[in-house]
Amino acid sequence: MFKKILIANRGEIALRVIRTCKEMGIKTVAVYSTADKESLHVHFADEAVCIGKPSSAESYLNMANIMAAAEVTNADAIHPGYGFLAENAKFSKLCADSNIKFIGPTPEMINAMGDKITAKDTMIKAGVPVIPGSQGLLESLAQAIVKAKEIGYPVILKATAGGGGKGMREVWAEADMERAYNTAKAEAGASFKNDGVYIEKFVEEPRHIEIQVAGDQYGNVCHLSERDCSIQRRHQKLVEESPSPFMTPELRKKMGDAAVKAAKTINYESVGTIEFLVDKHRNFYFMEMNTRIQVEHCVTEEVVQMDLIKEQIKIAAGEKISGNNNYTPTMHAIECRINAEDPYNDFRPSPGRITNLNLPGGHGVRIDSHVYSGYTIPPYYDSMIGKLIAVGKTRLEAIETMHRALNEFIVEGIKTTIPFHIQLMKNEDFRKGNFTTKFLENFKLK
User: Fold this and answer.
1) How many CB atoms lie within 10 A of CB 22?
2) Above pLDDT 70, what percent of the chain?
3) CA distance linking residue 129 with residue 143, whole number of Å
4) Is residue 221 a contact partner of residue 213, using CB atoms and an 8 Å limit?
5) Coil vs helix vs strand at 222
6) How many CA atoms within 13 Å lie on the side-chain side of 180?
7) What superfamily in CATH does domain 207-442 come from?
8) pLDDT band at 292 (very low <50, low <70, confident <90, very high)
9) Who is most buried in 97, 249, 329, 433, counting CB within 10 A?
């Protein structure tokens, strides 16, 4: 087992990793930008090293500075969290070359799933259902028009290096293709320095359902059931839950088997997530694989009673996965992402100083957060300040616990998404499980 782990991340996920390391008797090193010197992950780690100025490029994406911090503190492993360098094959290789264990998959595994076109081709060969679309990148507008006719409208253009809805455009008629194609390529180029786009059939009334998987160095793979991430705004997840209210035992087995097959195809090692779109007829299609821990891993932890960070560390240290059995949730868990955003002003970011904070508690409530009263939310990073998780024996019990906890959650000095979540928990369609990824387009905040 590792003696010391450096966490190459910030905020709540860095603190989350530190907590598990402490329970495992592993020393920790926090890295931080000058904007994060007062963050809790810095205070609770055994050691802390400043790695640069506030911008991500000069700190949390600065591989040289992070590796220097690992070497000067004699860390024998690096946990990347999520975001930043978590799915960067170059960083994974740099760790290997420096004889420091990257707690995650190998560069080859990241490359196999990091590019969406490559991942799709891999899944086709593995026999995993994929959405009909182009076999590679589109080379021209003319090719996009021809392919759209073959597939049938509506279609969707996607950036191959994309994420978070960037470089993505729905096209409902040929007359709209030229503008959508040019816009998608321009946005992809600006966001990812790669303007490659591909085309797929647009799945109507879709649910976003993902399967958590774990694989070890010995070829063992299991799944830990599903999460429903359909409550999204502009392709950014706001609420996640497990199990999905749309799931059936038969569908869980089919999707779980497909996810395990997908992970085994690339000899996957670590925890990861296979994301699917599921249509109203419960047909499911591979969308992408995230070769890292997910923001929403907490809901899975609560319903299958497993510490996924601990599992990740143990796998990286050469241990076998905790079980070869595929899991069925025994409870229901819902997670609300609490963001420093103003839901009454188009979710505009709201950085600033938290003047007063009251965190909810009680049975069935979990909070993963790095903020405290007097903490200043910096404007340089993701706006998420915490995750509130509610657990119950049934979905409605979890919803009621969440609603109660949200009303106890007081954050003053900045705007947050708490009012949005309070109203969502009382929405009848949400409570009945009647929603798709388009649900929030017609949701009116009061």
Assistant:
1) 14
2) 99
3) 24
4) yes
5) strand
6) 23
7) ATP-grasp fold, B domain (3.30.470.20)
8) very high
9) 329
Query: What is the model's pTM?
Result: 0.89
CB–CB of 31/51 below 8 Å?
yes
- What percent of the chain has pLDDT above 90? 89
Q: How far is CA 325 from CA 39, 222, 234, 304, 322, in A?
A: 39, 6, 35, 12, 9
Smallest CA-to-CA distance from 162 within 11, 287, 292 is with 287
Q: How far apart are CA 75 and CA 100, in angstroms?
A: 7
For residues 114 and 373, give the distance between their C-alpha atoms in angstroms, rounded to a whole number: 38
Cβ atoms of residues 157 and 172 within 8 Å: no
Annotated catalytic sites, by residue? 292
**Alpha-carbon torsion (163, 418, 437, 328), positive or negative:** positive
Residue 390: name the closest of 398, 400, 380, 378 by CA: 398
Average pLDDT over residues 279-295: 94
CATH code assigned to 4-103: 3.40.50.20
The residue type of 327 is Y
Please give the structure tokens belonging to residue 40. 């809790």
Give the strand pairing for 169-171 and 155-159: antiparallel
The closest of 44, 43, 88 to 66, measured between CA atoms, is 88
* Assigned superfamily of 132-201: ATP-grasp fold, A domain (3.30.1490.20)
Tens digits of residue pLDDT in 103-130:
999 999 999 887 777 888 889 988 999 9
The secondary structure of 309-375 as a DSSP string is: HHHHHHHHTTPPPS-SS----SSEEEEEEEESEETTTTTEE--EE--EEE---STTEEEEE---TT-
Comparing 131 with 82, the larger pLDDT belongs to 82
Report CA Rg, the chain: 21
Q: Report yes or no: 275 and 41 within 8 Å, Cβ to Cβ.
A: no
Q: How many residues does the chain have?
A: 446
Q: Is the model's pLDDT at 164 over the cut of 80?
A: no
Tokens of 193: 């320095």
Going from N- to C-terminal start, the domains of the chain cover 4-103, 132-201, 207-442
